[in-house]
Description:
By secondary structure, the protein is α/β, with parallel strands linked by helices. Helices cover 44% and strands 15% of the residues. It has a single domain (2-247), classed as NAD(P)-binding Rossmann-like Domain (Rossmann fold, 3-Layer(aba) Sandwich), CATH 3.40.50. β2, α2 and β3 (56-61) form a beta-alpha-beta unit. The longest helix has 28 residues, at 104-131. The relative contact order is 0.13.
Amino acid sequence: MERWEGRVALVTGASSGFGEDIAKRLTELGMKVIGCARNIDKIQALADGLKDAKGSLTAMKCDVSKEEDVLAMFEQIKKEYGGVDVCVNNAGLSHDAPLLSGATDQWRNMFDVNVIGLMTCSREAYKSMKERGVDDGHIILIGSMSAHRVVPDAPSIHCYAATKYAVKAITEGLRNELYAAKTHIRVTHISPGAARTDFNNRMFKDSPEKLAAKWVGVETLTCGDITESVIYALAAPGRVQIHDILIRPVEFKY
Length: 254
């Protein structure tokens, strides 16, 4: 990871869960990290606690489902840091919205954040790299095991799965377009399985106690497990593209 010291990484959805942990570790490893989210209070608190770290963390407010927010954020990054070298597309959400009974606005919100927002950030990150002649950048897409199977008895996440299948296709599309552009910019798709974050809590509006009860007797993934996969992909030699990483808990069926 030494070659990434002093370089700029954008982490979307950095206010909690995987994004928060990824932003923290990249900062500790010496990168200039921009953590963005709709609410930046937690990111700012994290940044305050990392003032003595090797790198730096800056909180920026951005709703990735709004193109104007994304464009404004990349313009701010350009002015303050020159541009982006690594883009970790972590922002994502799900609603309890089955295909036969879900609300249209909830379906649309999932696609706007999980798919369109991810594509917009990836596009702008590539533009930033290209205009500065950065040929070794990295675009990382945090997907889901829901991109690889549809769980039959979980209708609540069937639309969410559709968005994550889209992310898997986008990964392959980006790889082909980057190859056609004759660049060495890499793309990596990371698919976490069940993990202890507040993702399900936000989805089902559960209390922390009720959420914890769902995982009794099961050792799930941790945020650190996903962060280590990000670091593994970034640290690979420039000739190596870690294209797809699938991560499941040993004690979980799906």
